[in-house]
Amino acid sequence: MAGDTVVGVIIDCHGHYTTAPAQLGEYRDRQRAAVEADPQHVGDKGVVAISDDEIRGSLENAQVRLQQERGIDLTLFSPRASWMGHHLGNAHTSRFWTEHCNELIRRVCDLYPERFAPVCQLPQSPGTPIASSVAELRRCVEEMGFVGCNLNPDPSGGAWDGPPLPDRYWYPLYEALVELDVPAMIHVSASCNPNFHTTTSHYLGADTTAFTQLLTSTLFADFPGLRLVIPHGGGAVPYHWGRFRGIAQDLGLPPLDEAVLGNVWFDTCVYHQAGIDLLVRVVPTENILFASEMLGAVRGVDPETGHAFDDTRCYLDAAGLTDVERQQIYAGNARRVFPRLAA
Amino acid sequence: MAGDTVVGVIIDCHGHYTTAPAQLGEYRDRQRAAVEADPQHVGDKGVVAISDDEIRGSLENAQVRLQQERGIDLTLFSPRASWMGHHLGNAHTSRFWTEHCNELIRRVCDLYPERFAPVCQLPQSPGTPIASSVAELRRCVEEMGFVGCNLNPDPSGGAWDGPPLPDRYWYPLYEALVELDVPAMIHVSASCNPNFHTTTSHYLGADTTAFTQLLTSTLFADFPGLRLVIPHGGGAVPYHWGRFRGIAQDLGLPPLDEAVLGNVWFDTCVYHQAGIDLLVRVVPTENILFASEMLGAVRGVDPETGHAFDDTRCYLDAAGLTDVERQQIYAGNARRVFPRLAA
User: Is ipTM > 0.95 here?
Assistant: First the structure.
């Protein structure tokens, strides 16, 4: 099957700017020091001085090289997820930090318009209204051409003490997402809870938690046009597809395809062949979006295969898909979920 | 393969007394009312008056009938996990409640010595020393013939604000487990956090969290003889085996088989064929324990197969295992992990 593969355009729907020049982290360090000295610190937005050459230098031997080596045409590119850090600082610092991160993503996409399309983070801050996130989403989409956003379902960083996703707290954001016709990827940031390890138990637990919250709610009855992407292959969900199907049935809910699959997509950030084989076996093809999360959680080469763990194209090419299915997963579905990519 | 299956004894390592007579719940309701009126309430142990016939009546048309229908010889039987409720009440009420639950399990096993072997819950209570759990473990194993226990890694019920499993807080319990030569299944109870749904996101998230805590610690260097079972097929772990392998490598840890698989087992509470196929494909056979968790999280019949979702034997019989592998998973591994079963 992989031998006579016909592959068209490949869109990676999940990439983060994990290699940003050091000035970005230095800005954040100064901000954190200021709020440590004064939790009410407001400050001003300030400047993150990074040159175009520095941006190119941070990408050429990293994401761009890997795109070329792996045949990935376009990456939906967002700020580093573990650095969103919504639990750090306050609403003001979260706003300024988020604006800088998003503006840097915009610059990346201006320098590489064929390689990257912009996805924004939101200036969430625990216990504060969602209005600032709506405002930043509008700024990014309407003024800067962003095609989607990342939404943190647990801005506390592992305390899980905020409102679940179906809570009306989030409704103004969902209204804006539907109106702007952009999806949100449900993606937590770093854990500050010693019980959770950021890129494994926290990320995967959050993915499973988000799916369950959506399944057991009537959110999509209120927002039939809302589109949400659950990363990291859906956390534990596809592996436990039978449990979720059975519990939906026990709860008197409609089958999963009716209950959630009109509004929810899973990405392919699953780093071994058996996992990808399971994903494409149980989840309908039209609900799967190609992604690799590179450079992200895992950066090594699998000694058993000789491929990078996060080179998810290898697994998909070997997953026994038809050409039509492969093209759906590689690009067709992403074009439906992120319609602003056409612009 | 399934056609000429040779199956010996089948041991289900994960069953809960979810059908206990109403008097048990009524006792708990009175206890909860008392601590609601006075959080420091001590009270006394009191009595849960249930007759032998009532116990038989609660099992005959439930677990026992399903054991017979499915060809399960023996179930390792513990109190209802979602009712452990370590976050409810205080250390005193948790102790009395736990003693009653465990004594009821002992009575079940006395009535059906061929069908059930006893596994205890522990009187955990957030913020209190682990000594009371050690005492109850000793009472159950040394005086009442229990063969294992359930250990709640998050007695807060979803706040996850206690010490992680590798913390020294837990060491006296691990010392007792090793000395008594019994394993612990890492199993949370009900979630009181509206973000988590008990039998999906909370259970599966906890399984993944526990595995990650064990992997990223040196606990098994301190307790090379400790044996821990992670239920529900290991949460998200086998589906993300590549992520865990890759992150272990990135962290400079030994491979998973060296790092954890000498001390950790996964059960087979995965309720569809594709999930079981993945589990047996990626996890070494010697680390898999047959289990169905019946009657537990999912009680319906899968309309796609005509089998109960939790009839996990169907999936294992169809998983393409050799006779030797199947016998390991059905009984051989359980005998090694629960050596007191031989008594």
Answer: yes
